[in-house]
Amino acid sequence: IFTLFLNKEEAHYTPKSIMRKLKLTSARDRARIIEILHQLFKLKKIIKTDAGGYVINTQLEIIEGIIDVVSRNKAFLMSEKYEDDIPMDTRDLKYALSGDKVQALIYENGRRKQAEVINILKRERTTLVGKISHQRSVFFFIADGRKVYFDVFIPSHFIGEAKHNDKVKIEITSFPEKEGLSPEGRVVDVFGQIGENDAEMHS
């Protein structure tokens, strides 16, 4: 929803106009939109208009920086503009990984600054090492370590010779535009089963 405000396609937004834009119709959707608008207003990302709608807060700061992911839930934005790194939730990274150069929105969350990625300017890497999980005819890649906070969907025609619990290297081929979906990738190398010496050398 906040992306609509960033794009500034309309002069202001109301719950009704957002529902129309997102092609939503249920009362449950309307209640969720009102809740999200309240959260955005509380964080001062948007402000109310005299007409009863909302617009983006033009006083928000947008800067460039480098992402440092430290766990599946937490990351930091490093920027020359600030001496201290700015904390982030990984849900606000738009699938950025450590080392990626991004454009981020800075806002106040209580007494501290927080950042949210609005654009990825340069990706540091698109290949990852981890294991294949095969459940119910669906293949997913789970990266080693804690710095990759999402799993990657591997279409069956891109799985190659890899099997469940194989250690592999993959290349991410596409990132979703909508939140809640998984990036897609393809297997580029198979190292063997998890626990085997040859496979673990690639951890």
Describe the structure.
The longest helix has 16 residues, at 27-42. The strands form three sheets. The protein has a five-stranded antiparallel sheet, with no helix packed on it. A five-stranded antiparallel sheet has the order 10-9-8-11-12. Helix content is 17%, strand content 40%. With 203 residues, it is an alpha+beta fold. The protein has helices at residues 2-7, 15-22, 27-42, 197-200; strands at 46-48, 54-56, 61-69, 74-78, 86-89, 101-109, 112-122, 127-135, 138-143, 152-154, 166-174, 184-193. The model has no long low-confidence stretch (mean pLDDT 89). The protein is built from four helices and twelve strands; from the N terminus they run αααββββββββββββα.
Quick rundown:
The protein is an alpha+beta fold and 203 residues long. The protein has 4 helices and 12 strands; from the N terminus they run αααββββββββββββα. Helix content is 17%, strand content 40%.
Main sheet: which strands, in order across?
5-4-3-6-7
List how many beta strands DSSP finds: 12
Q: What Rg do the Cα atoms give?
A: 20 Å
User: What average pLDDT do the residues reach?
Assistant: 89
Order of helices and strands: HHHEEEEEEEEEEEEH
What is the molecular shape?
globular
Q: In this structure, how is the largest beta sheet organized?
A: 5 strands, antiparallel
Low-confidence stretches: none
Q: What structural class is derived from the secondary structure elements?
A: alpha+beta
Number of helices: 4
**Share of residues in helices:** 10-25%
Strand content: 35-45%
Q: What distance separates the N and C termini?
A: 38 Å
